[in-house]
Amino acid sequence: MEKIVILTGAGISAESGLGTFRDEDGLWAKHRIEDVATPEGFARDPALVHGFYNARRVQAAEAPPNEAHKALARLQRDFRGEVVIVTQNVDSLHEAGGAQNLIHMHGTLAGALCAACGHRWTSPPEMVVGERCPACNIPSARPDVVWFGEMPYHMDAIYDHLASATLFAAIGTSGQVYPAAAFVHEARMSGAQTVELNLAPSDGASSFDQVILGPASETVPSWVEGLLG
Ligand code: APR
Fold first, then answer.
1. What confidence score (pLDDT) does residue 103 get?
2. Going by DSSP bridges, is the β-strand pair 82-87/3-8 parallel, antiparallel, or unpaired?
């Protein structure tokens, strides 16, 4: 059976109004990764970190899915084989666009996680310092997002999918963050065809069989039309 595994990054949500990380004027030009996206940063200044994610949660909740998110959901519905989306994004725009088979490898802004007992629940719009876990009552609630130095979620399932992929696509990701940046190599080893769809060639562009350049809201729908014939 044909199986498409699609990795998405911040570029797919850019045209929904959400900033990317490493583009000019991206999030990492305005905030220091070590301050807002590491466990050490959270231990040092939890209010700063909550403030960063609260702002992004509000922004993400207001953003609409764009034609790229919708096209991938259409592909999942209408393709003759299996289509798995693995996203590095913590927004919920794939879900809002209708995606079904979706893995959030870097967690989600919609979730809260207890750093003490591992319990997960739906995040309130604003998380505050000292918020208690509903399961163990310890005040160690944190956003359920994967920070630098932490292991991304669902890696066993993702590697299983890559091992049986016949086509691998990376959409809107700069290829600078591992392990996601190495998925193209895993897919190639499994014999999958590989394609990158990005605004400009990513760091790993030479590892792909095909590179399609342009804004995701245009390239993704036409790529999907091609696959659906
Ligand atoms: N259409 C397609 N691609 C786009 C668009 C667009 N409209 N706008 C920007 N891009 C591309 C950029 O050219 C860039 O290659 O999207 C990519 C975004 O790269 P990054 O900002 O590095 O985002 P991403 O690859 O998702 O980052 C990976 O880094 O900080 C962490 O955890 C965070 O999940 C994130 C991870």
1. 98
2. parallel
pTM above 0.70, yes or no: yes
CATH architecture of the domain 1-18+65-106+151-229 equals 3-Layer(aba) Sandwich (3.40)
Which of 18, 21, 158, 213 to mutate to test ligand 1, by most ligand atoms within 8 A of the CB atom? 21
Neighbours of 97 (CB within 10 A): 22
Distance in Å, CA 164 to ligand 1 centroid: 26
pLDDT at 37 (0 to 100):
97
Question: Which amino acid, 220?
Answer: V
Q: Is 181 in the pocket of ligand 1 (CB under 6 A)?
A: no
Peptide bond into 143 cis (omega under 30): no
User: Residue ranges per domain, the chain?
Assistant: 1-18+65-106+151-229, 29-62+110-145
Residue nearest to atom 35 of ligand 1 (CA): 88
CA-proximal residue: ligand 1, atom 9 (nearest): 11
Please give the Cα distance from 62 to 226 (Å, whole number). 31
The catalytic site residues sit at 106
CATH of 29-62+110-145, one of 3.30.70.20, 2.60.40.10, 3.30.1450.10, 3.30.1600.10: 3.30.1600.10
Average pLDDT, the chain: 97
Q: How far apart are CA 37 and CA 49, in angstroms?
A: 8
Asked if the domains at 1-18+65-106+151-229 and 29-62+110-145 fall in one CATH topology, the answer is: no
Contact call for residues 143 and 66 (beta carbons, < 8 A): no
